[in-house]
Design a protein that fits this description.
Among the domains are: about 40 residues, no CATH class; about 45 residues. It has about 170 residues and is an all-alpha fold.
């Protein structure tokens, strides 16, 4: 039995030795029939992934075969589409830039109007203050005028009531 196992191992190693060295895979030391022994077909997961990718690519080619003309046509259509998108984006960018410039111009004109309005308000305020000052002086002069009138009336009343010497003596005693 032991010799039979060695024979199977030797057959496996001789048959698959070159592939195993390339893939760095060890042949299992399990007693099986040579038909069941798959030492050469053992692959790493990365190799399996590559194989699956290749098979999927072949399957895709079979399902959707593209002739050279069709592939060029698709590339041309894609380039045309991208060019159209590029033009559209450029137009949109130009429009946005124009809108920004217009908005900036409007803001500048509004700023000038506000500055002008502010200057007008300052002038009006200054004029109001001057007017207010004039009104105060007018009120003061009116008060002085009315006081002067009352003093005159009192003087006239006093003069008509007595002599001037009495009036002067009244003022001197005060």
């Amino acid at each position: 039995m032991e010799s039979l196992q060695q024979d199977k191992t030797t057959v496996c190693q001789e048959k698959y030795q070159p592939e195993m060295q390339q893939k760095a895979i060890r042949c299992p030391q399990v007693a099986r029939e040579p038909e069941q022994l798959n030492c050469g077909e053992v692959q790493t997961s990365r190799e399996q992934e590559k194989l699956v990718e290749k098979l999927m690519a072949k399957l895709e080619e079979k399902e959707n075969p593209l002739h050279d003309g069709q592939e060029q046509q698709l590339q041309h259509e894609e380039a045309k589409f991208l060019e159209g998108q590029s033009e559209h984006l450029q137009q949109q960018q130009d429009s946005n830039l124009h809108s920004l410039n217009q908005g900036s111009t409007e803001l500048q004109s509004e700023k000038k109007l506000l500055e002008h309005s502010h200057v007008k308000q300052q002038r009006n305020c200054s004029s109001y203050k001057q007017f207010n000052n004039i009104s105060k002086w007018e009120n003061i002069t009116e008060d002085l005028d009315s006081e002067a009138e009352s003093v005159e009336e009192e003087y006239d009343h006093t003069v008509s009531a007595g002599s001037e010497s009495e009036i002067y003596s009244d003022f001197e005693s005060d």
